[in-house]
Amino acid sequence: MLRRLFLRLLGRGREGPIEGTIADRLLQTDILMALQIAVRANAELKGDAPPDTDWRDCHVVKVDVLDEPALSDDGASVVGPWSERWIVELAGTAQAYTITFTPDEAGGMDFSIVPPDEGQS
User: Fold this and answer.
1) Relative to the CA of 95, which of 47, 63, 81, 119 has its CA 20 to 30 Å away?
2) pLDDT tens for residues 42-55?
3) Contact assessment for residue 10 and residue 17, using Cβ atoms and an 8 Å cutoff
4) Cα–Cα distance, 8 to 35 (Å, whole number)
5) Vertex 87, ends 59 and 115: CA angle to 5°?
């Protein structure tokens, strides 16, 4: 129920998956929850967040795959890491977050979120 709520809040009410990502629905929901925290923290650290910001208005506007993952021999599952750029809009400002996905040994998926401007020179 909570996962569906986050998909609706950050996906602007759409019921389907976020277009452009390789991540499945469950992973998308986990990313959206973490991404909302990252967007808010980034804005507060930079002092860019107006005091009346409604964090529920944070939403994904576009996703681009940057690096394709390696697939299993039968093509049914992801066996290698990949990265995507998620464009997130808040209060009329869009920012690009890079998300790196890494399959774990137990069959799950780890991900990390890199905020805009981090690691760039």
Assistant:
1) 81
2) 887 877 766 677 76
3) no
4) 14
5) 105
